[in-house]
Amino acid sequence: MTDYANILVEQRGAVTLVTLNRPQSLNALNSDVLADLSSAFGKYDKDDSQRCLVLTGSGEKAFAAGADIKQMADMAAADFFLQDFFAGWQTGVVATRKPWIAAVNGFALGGGCELAMMADFIYAADTAKFGQPEIKLGVAPGMGGSQRLTRAIGKAKAMEMCLTGRMMDAAEAERSGLVAKVVPLASLLEETLKTAELIASMPPMAAMVNKEMVNAAFETNLAQGILTERRLFQILTATEDKAEGMVAFIEKRPGVWKGR
Ligand code: CO8
Question: Where is the signal peptide, in residue numbers (predicted)?
């Protein structure tokens, strides 16, 4: 367990479990939380013993109820601009090269929904609720919500959610393609950790490359994405893990991975 003021970090074998830990404010996200997360995600990315990360919220009520409204209420536009407010989420969290999963255990609103969507995929408790209610505060998503939500669930629902600020429950989120799986709240962590352990058992460089390829689908046109995939595939064929994976298959035994 590493010491942070706003998050808990625990290594469980090859899986890093990070828990947002400001339950008194429903895990609202402020600059200190971002600093803690950036440090924890950075350490995870550099630690060869860690191969998947799970991010969840403390308590049963919220994953994160948004960016911290109390921190931002008195800030002027110039403060947001000069600090390039929210830019740190890109460098501190999104830039993580290894796989990570969001286990959404309750409200994921505003910045909370945006943080969950930064994950490689989301598992949700049946009690989870997603929304981009910023419009009710006179603002709009600022951590990628308008872009990632639209790519995840399409324009019709994303526009409706941003313009009305309504919440989407877990069943609708799964139907709409926002979450990979919905499980009862009581088994959310166990189920997510199980999947994380499965990912952690894969050849780690191949996991990073698979992540990069799928993400390329959001950043590029089809021809460029397919070229990116082919080139990354070709790079993987040069790894020791590729040689081991094929031999292990033929010898009917599990692969032993070197991560290179
Ligand atoms: N920021 C700061 N504190 C919060 C936040 C938040 N986003 N959400 C909840 N809290 C606090 C509450 O103020 C309350 O604290 P206190 O006990 O000191 O009053 C505590 O958490 C518990 O919350 P509630 O009493 O409200 O709990 P309820 O069960 O009644 O309601 C809700 C739960 C529905 C989740 C409700 O808390 C809520 O609507 N929260 C805000 C959701 C929201 O609007 N999120 C989007 C935030 S905006 C954003 O993410 C990006 C843009 C921000 C720009 C702001 C510019 C000024």
Answer: none
